[in-house]
Every structure is written in C-alpha cells, then in structure tokens.
Amino acid sequence: MHKRRVVVTGYGAVTPIGIGVKNFWQGLVSGENGVDLITKFDTTNFETKFAAEVKNFDPLNYFDKKTLKRIDPFTQYALVSAQEAIDTAGLDLEKVDKDKFGVIFGSGIGGMEALQNEHFKYFSAKNPSVISPFFIPMMIADLAAGQISIKYGLKGPNYATTSACATASHAIADAFMIIQKGLADVMLCGGSEAAISEMSIGGFNAMKALSTWNDRYKEASRPFDKDRNGFVMGEGAGILLIEELGHAIKRGANIIAEIAGIGLTADAYHITAPAPGGEGAVRSMKMAIEDAGLSIFDIDHINAHGTSTPYNDVTETMAIKTLFGDHAYKIVVNSTKSMTGHLLGAAGGIEAIATILAIQHDTVPPTINLTNPDPECDLNYSPLKPTYKRINAAISNTFGFGGHNASLLFKKFEE
C-alpha cells in the first residue's frame, strides 16, 4: 500500500534560550547558554542550584488571571507553542476539517508545580478542603493535549504520550503514523515540561543524575566532554504542525521539511542505564532510515540525545559508530542540550525543531562547553561553533528512562 507522505508546515517553541522559533534558532546558532542559577525556589539545601529556566516568560502576556489559576506552567508553555505552530503554518482554522485535525502532545512529568503546591497546602493545613478543584486537571499529563484541542476545537485523535525523555518524539511518531493511516490530515504534536521544582531537583539529585557544578554552572552541560558529570534540567515546550502532503499542497502551505521515517525500540535492560553499546539506539536509528527508504550514507546530521551524563554520551557514540561504520565520521553530530539543558518530556519537541532548522539552513548549531573531548567520544560534534554544510537528511534521537528509544528522520522536501 502506498504510504501517505507527511510534511512539516509549522512549529512553535518555548525554550531556555528563546521564546519563539526565530529566537530559539538565533540562540542555537550563536551558542547561547541557557543555564543559570535557579530562581523558582530557595536552593540553599540542594546539591544542584542551577538549571535552564525559561526566561522572560510572563504568563499574563498570554492568559488572564482566571485562566492561570486553572493551568499549570507546562500547559501554559504548550498553549503558547501551539499558537505559534498554527501561525507559522499559516493555517486558517475556519477552512480546515477539524474532525481530521488531531493533537498528540505529551509530558514526562506533567503538572509538577500544581502537584507540589497543592501537596504543600494540604500538609500545612491538614485539611483537604484547601485543595484546588482544578488540582487534578492541572496536574495530569494529558491536559496539555486536551487544552490545545479545546482551545481550537480540534476533534481528531487526541491524547498524550509519556515516555520520560522520549515523550515528545513518541508524540510526533504517533501523529506521523496517524496521518499515514488516514485517520487525520493535520496534527499538532510535541511535548512540554515545567519541572524545575524542589521535588524534581531533589529527586534527580537523589539518583545522582544531575550535575552539581555549582561553582561552574555555565559549563555544567557539556555533552561528550571528558569532565561531564550529569545533566542540567531545562523546561519549555516544542511542537510541530504536520500535514498529509496533498492537504498541505492544496492549501498552498509553505512546506518546511518532510518527516520521512521513525524508529521506535526498547532496550528491555535497565530502569535508567542504556543498553550496552547502545543496542536499542542502533535499532531505532536503523529502523528510521529503513522506514524512510534511505541508506546510512544519506544521513548528514544527527541531533544527539547528548545528555552530558557519563553513560549516555559514550553509549550513543558507540551506537552511531556501530550503525554507520566509517560514515559516522562524516556525519555532523551535535547536542542541543549543551545550550538548553535537558527538557525531559519536551526535549524531543525542541530538538525535532532544531533538526528541521538545521536542514532548512544547512547549518548544524554548536555543542558548547566541549573543551576537553572524551577519547571515547571521537565523532564530529560541531564543538563550540556551528558547522555549515548541506544537510539533506537528519535524525533526531531521544532516549528515555525505562529504555525507551525514538529516532525521527527528517529530510529536505522534494515533490
């Protein structure tokens, strides 16, 4: 059966290095560092005192006070990015069949701020009557997808994905398959996260996953560097508007890129550690390439998961070398997380956008802070400055706790 082709016509981003895709891209290419000391709570007793917060985001620029009492920040970021995606797609919602327009949008953690705040309120008062009636819909991870659907009246497939750091990539992959199958013509898909809070930072510190370079926090997110010692938490949202090719052409859409293949696998190995040699990552990248009908030699760029943790960076490098052989050294790899930190469930969203922008502009943004390369990480990671080269096809990798692997393959659009 002939597969329906799926193209990207819009995108929206809320990130630690810029709100809006244009600002995000400028931040990426200039090597902007989104990491700073945490302002959201008192970090006195915490091992990690820094993160990549979204800056200059005033929710009152987007929502009234009544609405803000009913939506957690992760949903705020989702709604702002969704509006940008619709705007950049030039979509007239009055001319679209909303029964064939869906939303798949996930979060790794959901409304952590709402959960924590209502928790504190209850235990201070020891009285359940103080709990907000909006607590549950503010907290549960599917409500960002639900709120986007409600705002625009989108009645196609609608749900959330939750697969830790692979969440947004799984949302995009699912939306891609739904359009291919003909269950929808247009989808908004991605993820958001707003988990820079006491419980999140404390929890990730307890499992020794976060960097603790409090005296050198600007240098703490350093993927593929020998001195890396953990990831830096980020927050924000990234969303794509994708369409069936014929639908996009019929309405005269500006086609940004084509999503040509997906690879979804499981390590079936460990709750947090990647499988030895990146075996699951090898299979997910291979699957994405085969799904797109391409060969390993067609891949010009990989936006790596690149978390700056001791295990991930070596394992992902091994996976790339295993699959691509000598061609691995011709691929420009980079890590967006060196600048944005790790957006957990939103990472795949903003990194899909970064991958598409790299294809659009034939430019791979730098991996900043890569000043002392790990000898085991010996690929071209575009260290410290952008790499300019023609990029026809690129893969965005995201790998989540629980052994979830997702690889998305994007390419330049050709009719």
Characterize this entry briefly.
The protein is 33% helix and 19% strand. The chain is built from 13 helices and 15 strands.
Which structural class matches the secondary elements?
alpha/beta
CATH-assigned homologous superfamily of the largest domain: Thiolase/Chalcone synthase
Q: What's the number of helices? A: 13
User: Care to count the β-strands?
Assistant: 15
Which regions have little confidence, pLDDT < 50, spanning 5+ residues? none
Q: Report, as a whole number of angstroms, the end-to-end distance.
A: 19 Å
The overall pLDDT average reads: 97
Assembly type: single chain
Number of domains: 2
The CATH topology annotation of the largest domain reads as Peroxisomal Thiolase, Chain A, domain 1
The main β sheet shows up as: 11 strands, mixed
The helix fraction, in percent, is 25-40%
The Cα radius of gyration reads: 20 Å
Gross geometry: globular
Per-chain topology:
Elements: E1 6-15, E2 18-19, H1 21-29, E3 36-37, E4 50-51, H2 65-68, H3 73-88, E5 101-106, H4 112-125, H5 135-139, H6 143-152, E6 158-159, H7 167-181, E7 186-193, H8 198-206, E8 236-244, H9 245-250, E9 257-266, H10 279-291, E10 301-303, H11 310-324, E11 332-334, H12 337-340, H13 347-361, E12 363-364, E13 387-388, E14 393-400, E15 404-411
Parallel strand pairs: 5-6, 5-7, 10-11, 10-14
Antiparallel strand pairs: 1-2, 1-8, 1-9, 3-4, 7-8, 9-15, 12-13, 14-15
Helix pairs in contact: 3-6, 7-13, 10-11
